[in-house]
Amino acid sequence: MPCQLMVGFLAYAKSFEINVDKDELEDAQWHSREDIKKALMFAEYKKAQRTAATKVYQMCKGVEKGQSLSADFNVESGELAPMFVPGPFAIAHHLISSWVHQVSTVVDVHSTRPSGSLSNL
Fold first, then answer.
1. Which of 1, 15, 71, 89 is the most exposed place for a label (fewest CB within 10 A)?
2. Which segments of 13-83 does DSSP mark as H helices, in order?
3. Ramachandran region of residue 19, left (φ > 0), alpha (ψ -120 to 50) or beta?
4. Where do the TM regions start and end (predicted)?
5. 84 Cβ partners below 8 Å, 6+ apart?
6. CB atoms within 10 A of CB 61
7. Taking the domains of the chain in order of start, what are their residue ranges?
8. d(CA 116, CA 97)
9. pLDDT value at 2 more than 50
């Protein structure tokens, strides 16, 4: 059985410019803390997460290409969440959730960072 270690990091960006490697990501966008908080509290969020988890499970089981997945995003309210946030099975969910629930503060990283703790990217 293969083993995997997944790690995640929070970092500060030096600008709002996003350069996307199209071989790795289709799209990347900036979102405000408030927008992410709304997406996490969206009424259909848990249902969408269960549906996504079912689809991932089916794909891992090997659903044939062209065959439909049994769980479709059937949102009863007719309203879709403003964005998709990965479910609690993903490290991205925990990074996003912990960032959203932080108190928004401005930090001067040059005066407070311990030696070697932040990249100069």
1. 1
2. 33-41, 45-61
3. beta
4. none
5. 39, 48, 52
6. 7
7. 33-107
8. 26
9. yes
Question: Exposed, middle or buried, 85 (CB in 10 Å: 0-12/13-18/19+)?
Answer: buried
Question: The tokens of 31 are what?
Answer: 């979102």
Tokens coding 113? 């960072």
Question: Where would I find the beta strands (DSSP E) of 25-119?
Answer: none
Amino acid at 12: Y
Whole-number Å distance between alpha carbons of 117 and 1 = 34
**14-50 residue pLDDT tens:** 999 999 899 998 888 899 999 888 888 775 666 767 7
Average pLDDT over residues 68-88: 58
Q: Look at the chain and count its residues.
A: 121
Tokens 């997944």 belong to residue: 6
Please say whether the beta carbons of 63 and 54 come within 8 A.
Answer: no
| Angle, CA 94 vertex, CA 114 and CA 4 arms, to 5° | 90
50's enclosing H/E stretch is helix 45-61
